[in-house]
Amino acid sequence: MAVYIGSKEKPARLAKPADSFDVMIVGGGPAGLSAGLYAARAGLEVVLLERMFMGGQAATANHVENYPGFDNGIGGPELTMAMERQAAKAGLVVRSAGVVGLELRGEEKEAELEGGMAVKARAAILAMGARPRKTGVSGEEELRGRGVSWCATCDGFMMKGKNCAVVGGGNTAAEDALYLAGICEHVTVVHRRGEFRADEALARRLREHPKVTIIWDHVVKAFEGEERLRAIEIESVKSQERTRLPVEGVFVAIGEDPDTALVKGQVELNRDGYVVAGEDTRTNLTRVYAAGDLRVKPLRQIVTAVSDGAVAATAAMQDLRYAPTRAKSLEAQPVT
Ligand SMILES: Cc1cc2nc3c(=O)[nH]c(=O)nc-3n(C[C@H](O)[C@H](O)[C@H](O)COP(=O)(O)OP(=O)(O)OC[C@H]3O[C@@H](n4cnc5c(N)ncnc54)[C@H](O)[C@@H]3O)c2cc1C
How do the domains of the chain map onto residue ranges? Predict the structure, then answer.
């Protein structure tokens, strides 16, 4: 019998450690939760390991307006708590523990947890996500969700008809700026260099766009506002002269860090550190799958993360038919 051990209704520990499973999932964001739901519903014994809180980045979104099925949008915490409950009902075991080591090359996959315990499984789904890089300057965290965003696809629509800025000069910044130019009154791109790192075709479209202004050789020094963002303070990297730029929204697009340090050297990563996986989420290692923001993919959103999770669990289920059976399965007992 699989037991749900979550952080809400039940104690966040196992009465007796169930150390051997069919599938282990690392990461409890939308990708991991969806993988857990599909794997548990397929009758597999599956454990999900999460180091912080369930729901991942999606749980930090104030209001999600682009996840299909909610015509008035839904709060990120509400959406991810429902995902968690649904997976729990299907029989997903959750352990609130950070994974500090992974050995994925053998027939049996092994995770070392904080505190020294280990979990083994015949298949592993990697769903550790990716963190957007922050500028680290004052006001950024305080005004998060109130004008400051790291995701134009998520929050751009709220800036309809307003003036906003994009910080960055790579492909993501260029794509974000072009996307926002279709929604906002005007978009100012603030870039610390004198030329874009974005592909030339994108950069040209940006330079030629009538609703886009580019401020070269400047960095953001502060996000200003109380209830909401009202302006950003920018500084010339050449003269150190500071300027105040009134904007109602700013999108920070200075890169992301996929949480893949744990698997480096085992799983194939691209040069930016994202896991290289096929459309079927299979990686270079047998019965190791990558789902959600940590893999190479064209769009990092909740809807694509849950889709990956479903595909990964299905691939694991198919591959496990031909895999050696578990040597031993300690059954989890309900906490009394
Ligand atoms: C503020 C904000 C607002 C957003 N708004 C939207 C929106 O409106 N619409 C939309 O579609 N998308 C939105 N996104 C993007 C969306 O949240 C992500 O695309 C999605 O959460 C990715 O899911 P994931 O499961 O791949 O990764 P994540 O959500 O990042 O989850 C990864 C999980 O893995 C855990 N983890 C990492 N390493 C370990 C480890 N070693 N051991 C155990 N656990 C580990 C992390 O703690 C985390 O919980 C937003 C993102 C942010 C930050």
Answer: 3-131+256-334, 134-252
Please give the pLDDT value at position 174.
Answer: 94
**Is 309 a pocket residue for ligand 1 (Cβ < 6 Å)?**
no
Mark the ranges of the chain whose per-residue pLDDT is less than 70: 1-18, 324, 326-336
pTM (two decimals): 0.84
Homologous superfamily (CATH) of 3-131+256-334 is FAD/NAD(P)-binding domain (3.50.50.60)
Catalytic positions: 151, 154-155
Contacts of 243 (CB under 8 A, 6+ apart): 218, 233, 234, 235, 236
**Ligand 1 binding pocket includes 58 (Cβ within 6 Å):** yes
Ligand 1 lined by 36 (C-beta under 6 Å):
no
Sign (positive or negative) of CA dihedral 49, 54, 58, 60: negative
- Residue 293 confidence (pLDDT): 97
User: How many whole angstroms from 295 Cα to the centroid of ligand 1?
Assistant: 12
